[in-house]
Amino acid sequence: MYFAKLQNVPTSPRKMRLVADMIRGMEVNRALGVLKFSSKEASARVEKLLRSAIANWEQKNERKAENGELFVTKVFVDGGAMLKRMRPAPQGRGYRVRKRSNHVTLFVDSKNTNDNQN
User: Fold this and answer.
1) What pairing do the DSSP bridges indicate for beta strands 2-9 and 102-110?
2) In the chain, how many domains are there?
3) What are phi and psi for residue 71, nearest 5 degrees?
4) Is the per-residue pLDDT at 114 higher than 90?
5) Domain that holds residue 12
6) CA-to-CA distance for 67 and 81, rounded, in angstroms?
7) Which end of the chain is more exposed for a tag (fewer CB within 10 A), N or C?
């Protein structure tokens, strides 16, 4: 199993999970297509991360990935550090603004190695 990590992405984890859910379990070329034409801002970051995971697989196996060979096996999004800011509010109060970030971990693997393990 080969993976790539993206840390401290300045997007809320909830928005990133919407993109991660779109590609989970998909074949990598199809997933790249889905991410390329998605209107979500987070999809550009996940696309770059997926390309990195594919490159890691190719580097370790010393060959190019063929069509239909690699799949996105796992994707998960964890909450990262939160920047806490104050925003002026009426009557001398201050509202807290939480600027969230997240960490994305993406695993790719070929189907046949998954069959051998089970």
Assistant:
1) antiparallel
2) 1
3) -130, 150
4) no
5) 2-117
6) 38
7) C
Question: Which residue do the tokens 């190019």 mark?
Answer: 64
Give 63's contacts (C-beta < 8 A, 6+ positions apart). none
pLDDT of residue 68: 82
Mean pLDDT for 8-22 is 95
Q: What is the CATH number of the domain that holds 32?
A: 3.90.470.10
Predicted confidence at residue 1, as pLDDT, reads 84
Cβ atoms 12, 100 nearer than 8 A: yes
- Per-residue tokens: 107: 């695993």
Residue keyed to tokens 């997240």: 102
Q: Which pLDDT belongs to residue 113?
A: 57
CB 9 within 8 A of CB 16: yes
Burial degree of 16 (CB within 10 A; 0-12, 13-18, 19+): buried
